[in-house]
Specification:
- The protein is α/β, with parallel strands linked by helices.
- It has one domain: Vaccinia Virus protein VP39 (Rossmann fold).
- It has eight helices and eleven strands.
- α1 runs parallel beside α2 and α6 runs parallel beside α7.
- The termini are far apart.
- About 3% of the residues have low confidence.
């Protein structure tokens, strides 16, 4: 088992410094996607949360920073990233248990647990649909090895009745996501994420509920940046998005929140 050394990682601030995350210099590095995902989860004190494919812990640690009193478990396939997630949990004093496992072979004790929320940021690209990264960890994080349907199957089995799944994915994977919900999850809602006004959505956040019977809802896109084009150096996030990324705010006005 090869773990990251201190020279292999950098320490980066999330949520304006409320979360400090060790990440590999050349492997998979978290951007805004897991932060936005965490902001949509309507968790409250006492709830239980499972993240599938937690990586170094960006999404789950952002959620734990926003909502105190949660009980959280992260599952990560790659030993080096699972080790980083444990280190990050300890340094952020976050109540996160990290389990190194494949989604298709979860430990027996975890299979006995159910959670109020499951979150996931699966690899964005179908197997063979993109050029593999030179870094093995980044290649695994970005390129699908476990079929997307299995992520939904695992999430549905681990959710408590009426529990929520939140998943962020590329917009072109939406048909696969909707198909995977059939027979597993209901009350499906989709929030498209568009970089700017007039741009097509590149990402979507899907919410689905175990036992949900509600009609499908497609929300208006969340616009990330102000203006129709990038005109100057520096950040241009819309105020609500900036509040999420910098202040740890919840994503309000969507998904009935």
């Amino acid at each position: 088992m090869t773990l990251f050394s201190d020279t292999d990682v950098t320490r980066n601030d999330f949520l304006g410094g409320r979360v400090r995350l060790w990440q590999p210099r050349s492997g998979y590095r978290a951007g805004v996607d897991p932060v936005l995902l965490a902001a949509t989860v309507p968790a409250t004190r006492g709830h239980t949360v499972l993240e599938l494919g937690c990586g170094a812990g960006a999404a789950i640690l952002c959620l734990l920073a926003r909502v105190p009193g949660l009980q959280a478990v992260g599952v990560e396939l790659q030993a080096s990233y699972a080790d980083l997630a444990r280190r990050n949990a300890a340094e952020n004093a976050a109540p996160l248990e990290v389990v190194e496992a494949d989604l298709s072979a979860l430990p027996a004790d975890l299979k006995q647990q159910q959670f109020d929320h499951v979150i996931a940021n699966p690899p964005y690209y179908r197997a063979g649909a993109h050029s593999s990264a030179e870094d093995k960890g980044r290649s695994i994080a970005l390129g699908e090895q476990t079929p997307l349907a299995l992520w939904f199957d695992c999430a549905a089995k681990r959710l408590a009745p009426r529990g929520y799944l939140h998943m962020i994915q590329k917009a072109d994977r939406l048909p696969d996501m909707l198909a995977a919900c059939v027979g597993r999850l209901g009350s499906v809602e989709v929030l498209p994420l568009a970089a700017r006004t007039g741009r097509a959505a590149e990402l979507v956040i899907l919410r689905a509920r175990k036992g949900g019977k509600g009609a499908f809802r497609l929300h208006a896109p969340l616009i990330l940046h102000a203006g129709e084009r990038h005109e100057k150096d520096g950040e241009s996030y819309e105020p609500q998005v900036s509040a999420v990324l910098r202040d740890g705010a919840a994503m309000t006005g969507f998904f009935g929140q």
